[in-house]
Structure formats: structure tokens, C-alpha cells
Amino acid sequence: MGMSTRSIKKVIGRISLLACIALLTNGCAYLKNRGNDALDLFDLGVTVNDRWMPGFGAYTDPFLVFPIGLSYVDSRFYGLSLRQISGFDYTNHSWGLVALGRERRGLGPFDPTSPYQARKDQRQLTERPAYDAGAVGLIAGKEPPPPMTAAVWKRGLHLGWVGIEYTCRFTEMYDFLVGWGTLDPMGDDKF
Asked: Chain centroid to CA 7: how far?
């Protein structure tokens, strides 16, 4: 009672035809969205002071749970971020002692509607908020982080006038992978 080879070929042919029609009619937007999802995966670049005052930063924070280091850097970031290769303002005023820490960091213009930069109750802010980090800070702190930062691993090293910054977003990795099946958990695809 199985399907014959001819029936299977017909079904595969029809599915292929529908896929081609879908790709041709909406393909450009589909592929552009996959590219945008790939660009959202990480930030990678160098930090350069635009003033004579040196900065210092040796800081990492995997998933807001284990912040380690100290950073007080106000500089420019040159590299890949915000879906483009360009230069952006960069701020990192953070400290971490494994279980407890505090972060105020960001790249580019502050956007209070971004789930990576502010909580829903902070939409009225005009500058970057500081928030608690580390397991103790997340449990006992009074300023919880924005929701999406829990799936981000931030790393930076800045000595004097130059440094390197690398941030990986694991929720964006998930969004990129399931996006190939037309799902959009981050809600950032435009058709």
C-alpha cells in the first residue's frame, strides 16, 4: 500500500515547483533576511580612543552569570556591528568579581526599544542604563539586565588607546538557523 516511485516523483516535483515559485516571488527578501540574521550573530572589531586620555578594559561576561574583570573605556569601535562595517561610539563601564558585577556598555547609538539595550520599563530612557551582573547580582540586585543579554557572551580587551571587542549572541544564532525554515523568533525579518 506504499506510494509508487512515479507518485513520489510527482510529489517531489510539485514541492520543488512551489519552492521555486516562493523563492522567485519572495526570494530576494528571504535571502536578505538570512544575511541580516547572519550579521546579527556577533560584533567584532577594534576599539580606538578618540581622545588623549587612555582607557583600560579587560572584561568578559558569559551570559551575565560570571562577569570577570574591569573596564572603563569610552572610545570608537571599528568593525562589524549593527549589520554593517563601520565606526561607532563605544562605551564599557563594567566590573565583575565572578558572582557579582555591574555593567554599563554599548555600541552605537542607544536604542531604548532594543531588547539588548533596555528593559520594557526603560523605554523612556535617553542614555544607557547600568544593570547588575553575576549570579548574586541577578538574584539580589535591584537593576536587572535587559532580557536578551542573558544569551550574550561579551569579551573585550582595551589597553591604553587600542583594544579588541568580540560579542557573540546565541539567540541570534538560533534565529539564523530556524530562519531558513521561515521562522522568525526575533521578529526582525522584513518582507
From this structure: 46
